[in-house]
Design goal:
Number of strands: 7
Strand order of the largest sheet: 1-2-3-7-6
Helix content: 40-55%
Shape: globular
Number of helices: 14
Structural class: alpha/beta
Distance between the termini: 76 Å
Length: 411
């Protein structure tokens, strides 16, 4: 089964009567003859042509893992890189499953699963360097652990302990962003600043399909384009912004076309084809790093689980749709291909599965330990220099805590 069309349009049977009702004219319009450029002037080509994405999403593997003909524009990544991609996808999926279970046990307040989007989550972070900056949304927990961040630190936000559990400066990873699209502006600003200081840093901004309807998305893309900031805007089109389908987000052929209006070259890729995702993002990152400005990539993928554990996805999509996408599983797709290349066998697959299980067990054990929480830490990191009001509030809380700790009746 091939990848989905960008927008599915039901077939329409047109009768002659329907044609006459739709238009009173039965004679087709006359074809315009091509005009020649005036003498002394050269004919110009469409300046937007180089910015346009492929008419169909780039795909290098069929859903069953069969390789498609090689492409000069998107060469296949090395087998070693693909094997590492597979390993991280398997570990990432097991992490995602464990995090979902932790919400049911009350260990997390909420968790937005990325199951089904493993190729996008892992392929994206493999395409950038450790010194590049990543700007995640709330759904990028799998991407962050694939980047090497401690999973307990990643889940700290969703646990409700801190706004961010890891050091953004040390990890070159911005805090997970709950407001839609604000990370696009942050990524554009940081990328511009890095380039202004002569560094070849690239910023990778994860974006959801719903976020492309937000003003911050357009402001970020436009700023990056005007100032040639080295940003890759990576849109994971998983077909739903909570319950809102793609058809309510855009009337364009695909979200990839949103870059063209700002002068940003764009591409669309089969987001469930791990080989294609890594190939396309590698080229996009190279484009940005070479000083050519931003690049926009839209990945066509699917969110297998509900929006979060608080969502009932059965209210806006049916089981048949989910089953269709289950047949396009990115993990199984890459495994099948690597087996044909001799890069994976039963023993290697079992060893990676054992590694993923050990990873989940360690996460489970550490998340089951109750964290020690200092109420006064609530006032830390609010401002670089605490305001008088903040100092006063902190002292009030300190006084209340001290009073509560005093023994009753002076004993």
């Amino acid at each position: 089964m091939g990848p989905p069309h960008v927008q599915e349009v039901p077939a329409v049977t047109t009768t002659p009567q329907a044609v006459r009702r739709a238009s009173p004219r039965t004679r087709p319009p006359a074809k315009k003859k091509p005009t020649k450029a005036p003498a002394g002037e050269q004919a110009t080509t469409d300046p937007a042509a180089a910015l346009l994405p492929q008419p169909e999403p780039v795909r290098l593997l069929d859903p069953d893992g069969t390789p498609l003909p090689a492409r000069a524009d998107y060469p296949e990544p090395p087998v070693k890189a693909l094997r590492e991609l597979y390993r991280r996808m398997v570990v990432g999926r097991r992490f995602d499953t464990q995090a979902t279970a932790l919400t049911k046990q009350g260990r997390l307040a909420v968790y937005p699963s990325a199951r089904g989007q493993e190729a996008c989550q892992v392929g994206a972070v493999l395409a950038v360097r450790d010194t590049d900056w990543v700007f995640p949304t709330y759904r990028e927990s799998m991407a962050l652990v694939s980047r090497g961040i401690d999973p307990v630190e990643v889940l700290t936000l969703l646990r409700g302990d801190w706004h961010c559990g890891y050091d953004p400066a040390q990890r070159h990873t911005a805090p997970q962003c709950t407001p839609l699209a604000t990370q696009c502006v942050h990524a554009a600003g940081l990328a511009y600043g890095e380039a202004h200081q002569g560094r070849d840093t690239v910023a990778l901004a994860f974006v959801g399909d719903g976020a492309t309807s937000e003003g911050d998305f357009h402001e970020g893309v436009n700023f990056a384009a005007v100032f040639k900031a080295p940003v890759v805007f990576f849109v994971q089109n998983n077909k739903y912004a909570i319950s809102v389908p793609l058809s309510r987000q855009t009337a364009a052929p695909s979200l990839a076309y949103k870059g063209v209006g700002y002068g940003v070259p764009s591409e669309q890729v089969d987001g469930n084809d791990p080989v294609a995702v890594l190939a396309v993002l590698t080229r996009a990152v190279e484009h940005a790093r070479s000083g050519q400005g931003p690049f926009l990539v839209e990945a066509h993928t699917y969110r297998m689980e509900p929006h979060t554990n608080a969502d009932d996805a059965t209210r806006y999509r049916d089981a048949a749709e989910v089953d269709t996408w289950r047949d396009r599983d990115p993990v199984a797709r890459l495994e099948a291909y690597l087996r044909t290349r001799g890069a994976l066998d039963d023993a290697a697959v079992a060893a990676i599965a054992d590694e993923a299980e050990a990873y989940a067990a360690d996460l489970r054990a550490r998340m089951n330990a109750q964290p020690a929480v200092d109420p006064l830490s609530l006032f830390d990191h609010v401002y670089a220099e605490p305001t008088p009001q903040l100092v006063e509030q902190r002292e009030l809380v300190r006084t209340e805590l001290a009073a509560a700790a005093e023994p009753e009746d002076g004993r």
